[in-house]
Amino acid sequence: MWYYSYFPTEPNAELPMYLYSIGMHDTQPLLVRPEGHRHDQFFYNTTGSGTILIYGQKYNIPEKSSFFIPAHVPHEYYPNTDIWDIRWFVPCGKGLRALYKHINLKFGIYPLSDARNLDSLLNRMRSELMYNDINGNLFASAHINEFILEFAVQSGLLHREISYPEQNMNPYSRHMRIIKDYIDSHYMQPISMDELCALEGLTPQHICRIFKQCVRMRPSEYILNVRISHAKEMLLHTSHSISEIAYWCGFENNNYFWKKFRDITGYAPGEYRKLSSAQNY
Predict the structure, then answer these.
(1) Looking at 136, 154, 172, which one is the last position of a domain?
(2) pTM, two decimal places
(3) Rounded to whole angstroms, how far apart are CA atoms 162 and 154?
(4) Portion of the chain with pLDDT greater than 70, in percent
(5) Beta-carbon neighbour count of residue 95 at 10 Å?
(6) Does residue 137 share a domain with residue 25?
(7) Of the four listed, 89, 106, 111, 276, which is most buried by Cβ atoms within 10 Å?
(8) 47 Cβ partners below 8 Å, 6+ apart?
């Protein structure tokens, strides 16, 4: 389980949109809000199911669903299964009302067609909050409008026709774009070859050929480099400990992180942080 909560500060409160809270709970427990939440809440899940009580009614929330709860509406929700992996997103700002009006947003439970883009946006905001202790909310706010529109598209409230120039892209490049987006959104957690194969219905051998053709690396090497790249950013721009950075970048073993970081950069994580800090003066 991870989450970030950023309470409004004076600079953020002047923005048209800014973040109050984002997060995920793998095993969402019972939550009761007799007065409702002070802000609007967006939710979606991919595993398990739950129940919500709102407006005097009980609603089932099946697996792969999204739902929206307006501010100040009393409600409670709880899981129906052992695992109910709720993701949440709570924005603030005077610019939200006009956006809601355009997409006709109101309380509802909607089937979720594909959570990958929502996961990607949520993790981008999470990264901004982790990488920048001072202005993280400011940078994360750039993704709020995009998240709400994607939520509306995935929930069937808004229709969008997307046309990629697929005819000008070889098959390996098309597959690589999808795989790369998935890795960029999930680098902080274990990524298996089976997951990558399932994205496009490919075999492990085909996946390896795609990586060799497009990035001249094995899949595991590419994932490692993505994680090290994020770790370098966090070492430069946050005060988090090295063990925290290792964990948030997908490394379960600190010694392995230290070794691989040194193999790729030539420096131990602590040396890299000190050297980079000295060069900034």
Answers:
(1) 154
(2) 0.67
(3) 13
(4) 90
(5) 15
(6) yes
(7) 89
(8) 63, 83, 84, 85
